[in-house]
């Protein structure tokens, strides 16, 4: 390049060299990672997201405000005003009436076991359907999906009769077994689609190295799909925690009831006032909110894991 410049006359050197620098600077400025301007569509999406967030937050805020409001204050000012003074009798009354620690443990016990069992069964089923390629896998997946779409009202009487015969009625294990099957149906459908796109080269390499099917599952498939499994654990726990109809039907004794069932049964039995009802809803909501906040990063990583190769 220097030899070429020496061969040019002085006029050409003075013209050509400065002409390159501005163009290069313009390209550098154009390719820089500077702030981008938001378009009208971006602002519309942002406004819609804010409005939806407000609608989602309003019920929780109403529950929070009315939980610390006395019945007299509620009757005077209504549900939309802040309490004039903090009132804790509603929370204490609900805590003592239902034995809230016992109901909290029942919900954690049932939801935790369902989440773990359902994810394990889903992983085994999906490994057989998505990677094992059993015969008729498409019809099996469709059948599982259809079974998962059945409303719970249709299942109540057959399940009631079956668990009554085996002696598991009014037992927490009846609810655990039912929801493990229901949740694993969805998990099998989801994981079978994920495992169906698993890299065959990786599985063949593990097989050539002498790995058995069990070793391939736990040393190859499980570590790669762990983010997805973590998301399923979180969803299964929250979904089972919020279930009401089946626990209400199968958990008759007061000592076996979950938090949602205890709230509803107490409302119908003792006719609680609005502030105590709000306090009960707040106490029932806090555990799932804490669980979600603890595993928020795990949920985010699991959801976004499939977007990055």
TrEMBL record:
Belongs to the binding-protein-dependent transport system permease family. The chain crosses the membrane at residues 43-65, 108-131, 138-161, 173-195, 216-241, 274-295. It is a multi-pass membrane protein. Its main location: membrane. The keyword Zinc does not apply. This is Carbohydrate ABC transporter permease. It comes from the Bacteria. Pfam families: BPD_transp_1. It comes from Agromyces tropicus. Residues 104-295 form the ABC transmembrane type-1 domain.
